[in-house]
Amino acid sequence: METTETDGITTTTVDGIRTVLAPRSGLLTAGLLFRVGRADETLATSGITHLVEHLALHRHGLGDLHHNGATAAAYTHFHATGTPADVVEYLNGVCAALRDLPTDRLETEKGILRTEAAGKGHGPAHAATLWRYGSRSYGLTGYAETGLYRLTADDVRAWAQTRFTAENAVLWITGDSVPEGLDLTLPRGEWHPAPAATSALPATPAYFPGDDPGVVLTAVVPRSTEADLFAEVLGKELFRELRQKGGYSYTAIGDYSPRDADSATVTAYADALPQKQDALVGAFVDVFAKLRAGRIEQADLDSVRASALAQFDTPELAGRLLPGHAMNLLLGHRNLTVAEAKAEIEAVTVADLHRVARAVWDDALVQMPGRGVDWAGLAAAPTDSPDIVSGTRHPAVADPDVFLRLADDGVSRVSPGQRVTVRYAACSLMQVYPDGARHLVGHDGFTVTVEPTLYHRITPAELAVIDAAVPPSAVVAMPPRHPSRIPRPAGPGPAAAPAARSVWFTVLLWVLGVPGLLIGGSALLLGLALGDDHDRIPQDTAQDLLMWLMFAGVFLIPWGVCLDRRLKGKN
Question: CA–CA separation, 234 vs 252, rounded Å?
């Protein structure tokens, strides 16, 4: 690749890696980007990219150099700031580790990743990724790194050799030349474009209930200058209406974030106290209604335009633009020249923002604090499956109105008001526990847990059918659970008490019915045979009593059988 220069940014290659440089004062900063992230994984291998990142950085943990690594949805980034010698040592060490990962640290780093996850917070839009994308592609960022229990040394080595390659990387350096001594030798491979986005939403705009007292809206739109400016105008409008005028929110913001080469996510967020949630929801929807109607203040556009143009007046502009330039090169998005970027900003009109506002609302997914917004034209995101499998019925021990259906092609859980199905062919993950439990996650994000302790008559043979049908690539063998972690049926309560009372009633019917039938029938036959030879009870009275006992047995026994079959789910 030949060396070129545009707007102070030099493009060249180092050890086969595309490299961009721009001078900046102060200590040297460099970053090595790879086009691989969590969205490239599967739920059953989730965490493999993060694990490679940790293994590559293990040997750098004790130095004074300011460095870090990050694994995002679509990229992995290693970066450091220091003297040229320090940065060279860091980057050389990362590439050496990627060539030969210290897999003797594998289990230790897995434990560190689980600890990291346990103490990590999430942003307000975290849950929206699962609802929008399901359990694949960018939806994986909404899940724990569930593949860590499955991953082997061979798995992480193969991932590093195919994804952490020279062709799949971009290097950026805040200097006017490549520092001496740099050795970034990496396996040869190919550039991997960002994965195609999956969808778990049948329609948009849509909403789903959330635990956060605030309101979060996300929408995916084409990457553009007008969408970037719209997010800034949206933030101004939300702040003005929800904080300054309404007094509902402390934080009210809009954001624009590129997702891949072609798409970006627009996010709107506003918080509120629980007692102000209803008012917040109404005002939030009103802001979007106003923008969709084209009532956008020219002054707001002029303000955000001026701020966007001002970034080009900063000193050492090339060095400041360098990380974003490198990211665009990595994702395959065209980098604009400074003149082109300014011209696009200048050309944006209120009509352009109006079109973006409508596009954002058309693709909106809104997290609401526990209330529906059908009145605003938002459809409820699916909370159950469209159908259930036709298979063996297994009632819950604690509640006969809840049951599993196990079939050759999937499993369903049915409860009053909800039904959830995971088809084996569309299973992203099945966690297998030694105690017999199977936890399945479908591509659409729905989960069904098969716990033999909670349902009647789930046999090893039926579990074997599930194990044979789920794709091996989706299976994660889990370690044994502590006995206290294995779920047990709840004690008698509102749902279990009627069943418990029915069991005792069934027993009583059998106790009375069987002896009644035997004693009544036997004595009646004996009395008929003896005729008038017994005189302790008048004959008519005795025969009547014995007849009643026999009839009681005849009716009570079938009643007990039917009730017993109902309780066991044989209907």
Answer: 9
Residues 357 and 361: their CA atoms lie apart, in Å, by 6
Q: What is the pLDDT of residue 558?
A: 52
- Closest by CA to 218, choosing from 250, 274, 262, 256, is 256
Contact 105, 60 (CB under 8 A): no
Tell me which of 496 and 53 has the higher pLDDT: 53
Give the chain's end-to-end CA distance (angstroms, integer): 73
Q: Report the sign of the C-alpha dihedral through residues 384, 385, 387, 389, in that order.
A: negative
Cα–Cα distance measured from residue 277 to residue 209, given in angstroms and rounded to the nearest whole number: 13
Strand partners, 144: none
Q: Where are the beta strands (DSSP E) in 104-188?
A: 169-173
Residue that is written with structure tokens 């009839």 in the block: 551
| CB of 91 closer than 8 Å to CB of 105 | no
Whether residue 353 contacts residue 231, with contact meaning beta carbons closer than 8 Å, is answered with no
What b/e string do you get for 541-558 counting C-beta neighbours within 10 Å, with b at 16 or more?
eeeeebeebbebbeebbe
Cis? peptide before 205, omega within 30° of 0:
yes
pLDDT at 550 over 80: no
Span 194-250, pLDDT tens digits: 999 999 999 999 999 988 889 999 999 999 999 999 999 999 999 999 999 999 999
Kindly tell me the number of DSSP H helices and DSSP E strands found in the chain.
Answer: 14, 21
Percent of the chain with pLDDT over 90: 78
Per-residue confidence (pLDDT) for residue 494, from 0 to 100: 39
Predicted model pTM: 0.85
Q: Which amino acid is at 309?
A: L
The CA-based angle 454-460-466, given to 5 degrees, is: 85
C-alpha span between 199 and 362 (Å, rounded): 15
63-68: long-range contacts, CB 8 A cutoff, minimum separation 24: 65/89, 65/90
Q: From the centroid of its chain, how far is CA 362?
A: 22
**In 26-154, at which residue ranges do the beta strands (DSSP E only) sit?**
28-34, 66-71, 76-82
**Among 228, 265, 268, 262, residue whose Cα is nearest residue 249:** 268
Buried b (16+ CB within 10 A) or exposed e, 232-244: bbbbbbbbebbbe
Contacts of 538 (CB under 8 A, 6+ apart): none
Q: Which of 144, 208, 135, 561 is nearest to 382 (CA)?
A: 208
| Residue 265, SS3 per DSSP | strand
Which segments of 60-105 does DSSP mark as H helices, in order? 84-99
Amino acid in position 179: P
β-strand pairing of 365-368 with 215-222: antiparallel
Q: CB of 57 within 8 A of CB of 69? A: yes
Handedness of CA 344, 346, 351, 355 (dihedral sign): positive
What DSSP designation does 421 have?
E
pLDDT single digits (tens) 235-285:
999 999 999 999 999 999 999 999 999 999 999 999 999 899 999 999 999
